[in-house]
Known about the structure:
The protein is an alpha/beta fold.
Amino acid sequence: MHICVLGQGYVGLPLAVRAAEVGHTVTGYEPDRTRCAALAAGSSYVEDIGDGRLRAVLDSGAYRASCDPQDLKGFDVAVITVPTPLTDRAPDLSCVRDAGRVLAEWIEPGATVVLESTTHPGTTRDVLVPLLEEGSGLVAGQDFHVGFSPERIDPGNADWRLENTPKIVAGLTEDCLRRVHDFYDTVTDVTVPASGLEEAELAKVFENTYRHVNIALVNELSRMAHTLGVDVWHTLELAATKPFGFTRFLPGPGVGGHCLPIDPVYLSHHVKARHGQTFRLIELAQDINESQPDYVVRRLQDALSRRFRRSVHGACVLALGAAYKPGTSDARQSPAVEVTDRLRAMGADVTVVDPYLPESGGGLRDIPFAGAGTGTDTVAGFDAVVLLTPHAEFDLDRLAAEAAYVLDTRGVMPAAPHIERL
Length: 422
C-alpha cells in the first residue's frame, strides 16, 4: 500500500521506516524543510532509527521524505503523528488541525486516515472528522475510513519497540476498525481492538496519567522521608519485595518528555472545560511534579550552605545530563534543563555535560565530566555535582572518588558522606 505518515519525529519516523521495511511504499511528510532535507540525505535525528536503517529504506525506494503536500496524493493509509503540545497551559490541537486540512485535499474513496497523536477523548470524532469531510467533500465511515491508534513509543527503549509493543486500534465504524486493524497487523506483532474511538483515546491519556500520579506520589514521599531522616530509596526497595499489589516507581528531578508533563493535562482540561468537573489527582500530581526541580535546587542550596558555608550564587556546579531520561537526546520538557536554568538564575556558574547533546558542552567520551571551557579533566574544581540524568556513559565510580559533593537525584549512587540521594 501507499502509506503517508504526517510528522517525522520520535513517533512518525519509526512508523514510516517500519512500514517501508515490511513492504509498503511510504511517504514521510515533514513540513520542516531542514528536517526533511536531513532525512532525504539519510541522516536521522531520532536515536531509535539509525542512519544505516534509514538509508536502507531510502536506497530501496520504499521510503521518501517530502515537504510537498502533493506527494500525499493517492495514499491508501495516512497516519497523523504530529505534536499535541500545551500553549499557555491549555491543549493545543493546531498541528492536528493543520495536518487534517492538508490531508483532506488528497483523500480518495476507500482511503484510511488514522490519528496517533495523543489527545483528549472526542478529538478524532469531533475535531478531525469534520475537517476531513469538509476538505474532501466525502463522508467519513461511508466514503473513507477513520481510526485512532495511540502511539506507545518509548525513546531509547531497546526492549519495547514499535513492532513488539501491543498496538491499540479503533475505528469510527466497524469497517473502519477492520481497515485500521489490517494495516497495523502488517507493522506490529500484536494489535488490540478497542470498542470505540473515545475508549482508545482515553486509554492512552490514562496510561500516562497512571505514571504521572505515581511518580508524584514517590516524589512527595522522598521529600517527607528526607524531613524524617529516612532513606526513601531503601524504603522503596523493601516495598518492592511485595509480590502483589505494588508497582515500584522512583523519585527524580521531575517528569519530562512529551507524555507525562502534557498528556494528563489534556484529560483534566477536557473534563473541566466540557463538564465543569475537576480531575483532582491529575492537578495535584501536576503541582508536585512541576515543583520538583525547585526542590532539587533547594536541596543543593541547603547542602552548599551546610557543608561549605556558601551560597548558590557564584558556586561552580557541574550538572550531569540534560535529556529527560538516560540513553536519549530527548530534552523535551526535561526537568534537568529546568534545574540548570534555575541554578543559573540564582547566579551559579553551571557546566552542563550530556554525551547525547553536544551543544550542552559535553560529548567528551574519554573525559566524561569535562565541559567546554572548564580547563580541567576532573570534577575536583567544582563546588558541587548534581546528577540529573544517569547516562551509562558517566563514570560514577570516578565521580564518587573525585567530587567534593554530589546530589544524586536518581538514586543510582551508593550513599556516602559526600554523596546525598534525593
